[in-house]
Structure prediction request, 431 residues.
Amino acid sequence: MDINRIKDIRARQVLDSDGRPAIEADVITESGVMGRSSAATGNSVGINESAVIRDGDPKLFGGKSVYKAIDNVNKIIAPALRGMSVTDQKAIDEKMIELDGTRYKTKLGGNTINAVSFAAARAGAASEKLPFYRYLANGKKIRHSFTPVYNLVNGGTYYGKTQAFQEFILIPRNVDSFDEAVRVGVEMFYTIGDIIAEEMKQKPVMGKYCGHGAPSDDPSVIFDIFNEAASRLGYKDKVCYGIDCASSEFYDSKDFSYRYRGRDISRDELTTLLKNLCEKYPIGFIEDPLNEEDFDGYKAAHKIIPAALIGDDLLCTNIERARKAYEMQAADGMIVKPNQVGTLTETMQTVDFLKEKNQILIASGRSGGPLDDPTTDLVVAIGGHMLKTGAPRSGERVVSINDGIHIAEELGMDGRPFNVMKLAGFSRIDK
Ligand code: PGA
Ligand code: ZN
Prediction:
């Protein structure tokens, strides 16, 4: 008997860190080893992501329950995967893709497939008695060398003003250890809160992503606060910044314009505005600068904006979209979010393609993600350059940072973060 064979798969509904129902799966082998995972789902969700299926019955969890997804595991996925070896991730994932048969996994649910895919991988790691990051690396050399980056100020509407850009990101640089990268991020977070209180005379509020709610609709005001915090702490040479514009969220497809600070602006105006920001502040990357379908706009923006352009909603961890962006020279890298595409195998195919092309890889959890978030294991396994952890506040975000501390210790390394200054778009910052 192959003790690694799948004996059973069970699914249930649990809650994610936003209190929404989420599907969780257990994959159990003949030898009694179990792997468990729930599926992350985001809040700022790209239209090209694999589907999150929910029951839509307003009487149940406001329509958000996932009982149909659970049924799909019990009735369709479990019978088909029983007997397969839990260490054969590719076969497991391919089987689920085949059973689903749709482009966006609408039949079985991207969330359903994601939970089973990661539960199988965790069972595989447990069977082989390997830490998850090592199992995911699949024999490749492991390095704990990534920079944790923090979404310290969040867009949205606060103090009566709407900040269009979703995330103002702090990127540690010139740091010697993972601990130092944590310290820089956390101290900047505290100090930005102090400055909002003292200089803006606003009581800092918690933003949509657990960072500080943006105190202004003007990005320059926010980066001035970042600069002020860096000078107070003596961290001018230890920080640079990123923006996640999440532009699809304020794009209006009816007139191809962006709703920005009470005006409608064109993509060219938005591109120029971002270029100017990059010239004024030490901004290393801009995520989702334009609408998620605008590959041509990215291509044009890429020639003008001096920072690295990173695709999140643009690419959705999807290899075809990543290949298209690479071939068009529309972006410099990708946000890696496995649930966007569905399976671990598809995620790794996209990652391998981009790695070979020397593109920037930033692994990211989802807001409202699971408490057993695998993103830190993933960033170590793929040798990613950065890990987006959100703000250093709230359990599911802090857990990723603490995982980074644990893994650095386990590997007996100081976890010296990747030197982001080597990346496209960053080296100009000191010039
Ligand atoms: P999420 O998005 O809220 O869907 O997790 C965060 C992001 O856009 O990076
Ligand atoms: Zn994003």
